[in-house]
Structure formats: C-alpha cells, structure tokens
Write a structure and sequence with these properties.
The chain has about 230 residues and is of the alpha/beta class. Helices cover about 35% and strands about 25% of the residues. It has one domain (about 35-60, about 85-225): Rossmann fold (3-Layer(aba) Sandwich), CATH 3.40.50.300. The protein has seven helices and ten strands. It binds adenosine-5'-diphosphate and magnesium ion. Adenosine-5'-diphosphate binds near residues 24 and 48. Magnesium ion (MG) binds near residues 48, 49 and 170.
C-alpha cells in the first residue's frame, strides 16, 4: 500500500558562513499513513521547521524525494506545487498568520474560495467549522479583535476547512498559555480524527506529543522513533 506521505533520503543544506554548508537534514526518511498523527520533537535548531517546509512544498530539498499519494514533488512545476498546497495540505504555525484585513469568517472561507468552491458553500462550511472551534460569536471579528487562543483556533479551522489530506502544524500551541494550549490541542486532535486528516505536528509539549500515533525525534538530521514520552529530552 502506498503511504499517504513519504519522504526518502531527504537532505537539506543551507549555505553557512564563507563557503561553508550547514547540513540540517541528512538522509531522512518518513512515512505517514492516511489519517495518522505523527509528532516530531527535537531541540531548537534541529531542523523541525525546515522539515515541515519541505513536506509542505514551501521549499525544495537538496536531495531525496517527497511524494504525496505516490506523486513526487520533484516532478511537479511551481503551479502544480501551489495546487497541491492549496488543495491537499493545511498549515498551522506558531503564530496564526491570519489575514489582518479580513474577518475570522473570511479567513476560514479563503482556502475554499481558492479551491474554487462557491461563496455560499464556502460560507456555510466555514461557519460550521468556526462554530466547532467555539468561535460562533466571533465570526465577524478581525484577528486583532480576537485573543491569542481564539486566533489560533481560527487558524486550526482554516487549516482543516478544505478537508486536506495532511495538516502540517509547527508548534501550534507555542505562543499560548497552558490552558489555551490544552484547549487548542484537544480541539485540533478531535477535529483531525473526525475528519480523518493526517497530521504532522512539531511540538515541545509532551502531553500533546503523547497523543500522536507515532512520536519521532529529529536529531543529527534524521528521525528516530521515541517509544516513551518520558524518554524525551
Ligand atoms: N533559510 C535558511 N538559511 C540558512 N540557515 C537556515 C535557514 N533556515 C534554517 N536555517 C538553519 O537550519 C537549522 C535548523 O533550523 P529550523 O529548521 O528552524 O530548526 P527548528 O525548527 O528545529 O528549531 C538552524 O541552524 C537554522 O539556523
Ligand atoms: Mg522551528
């Protein structure tokens, strides 16, 4: 069976200093099944965000290959990669990246409009998801009028609204206090399971990592399975 998302022999190097190179990812492999939730942990600077950028087709690998449903990113041109990002992937970052000039509702409708859905259908689906994340009473608010936790819940609704195959989340609770972090994690996991969306989540939060199907440690440019959350550094 073809995995949903597969990375093989992935390498990423950045130019560093004068004529030097920084090898961030070295021969990294990853397999993600449909609906599976994988947590990635690792020290600051280990390359977690770099890996998510590659998986999200936001940056190109130096070597190796990533494939979604058997289609290798390396064979796609820029337009096809944009299409893949818009239709099949969802993103949640540490800071929400909502569009400031638009309401919560418009922000959540956006991925559906980009995917070519009618305004009416986009609106009703976005309203439904905003209600599910507890923002029924905040739909017309702009991001600046929402609390940090509300902005992040809105970002989760936006990441899931177009029913992507995979959501990539980079420390989504990183800027939230403990209570809001737990609330966001509960919501995110519940919705991802309900919608059978696969998730790759980068997190420092052990409780959050413990809820994933697999926990992987990124160290020395590679991923290794973590059996017990207590063993995490
Ligand atoms: N665009 C870039 N150019 C040069 N170095 C980079 C770039 N992006 C990341 N790095 C370096 O790669 C390493 C991994 O960064 P990052 O993926 O952000 O780590 P993490 O998310 O695990 O904290 C760091 O040493 C960082 O400075
Ligand atoms: Mg990072």
């Amino acid at each position: 069976m073809t995995p949903l998302l597969e990375a093989r022999g992935l390498r990423k190097r950045f130019p560093s200093g004068d004529a030097g190179w920084l090898d961030v990812l070295v021969n990294l492999d990853l397999m993600l099944a449909r609906g599976e939730v994988v947590a990635i942990v690792g020290a600051s600077g280990a390359g977690k965000s770099t890996l998510l950028h590659l998986l999200g087709a936001l940056d190109r690998a130096t070597a190796g290959e990533i494939a979604l449903d058997g289609v290798a990113y390396g064979r796609l041109d820029a337009a096809a990669l944009a299409e893949l990002r818009n239709r099949r992937l969802g993103f949640v970052f540490q800071y929400h990246h909502l569009l400031r000039e638009f309401s919560a509702l418009e922000n959540v409708m956006m991925p559906l409009l980009i995917a070519g859905r009618s305004r009416d259908r986009a609106r009703s689906r976005a309203e439904q998801l905003l209600a599910e994340v507890g923002l029924a009473g905040r739909m017309t608010h702009r991001p600046a009028a929402l609390s940090g936790g509300e902005q992040q819940r809105c970002a989760v609704a936006r990441a899931l609204v177009h029913d992507p195959d995979v959501v990539l989340a980079d420390e989504p609770t990183g800027n939230l206090d403990h209570g809001n972090g737990v609330m966001l994690a509960d919501l995110f996991f519940r919705l991802a399971r309900e919608l059978e969306t696969a998730v790759v989540i980068v997190t420092h939060n052990r409780q959050l990592a413990a809820r994933a199907d697999q926990i992987l440690l990124l160290e020395d440019g590679r991923l290794t399975p973590v059996r017990e959350v207590e063993a995490l550094p």
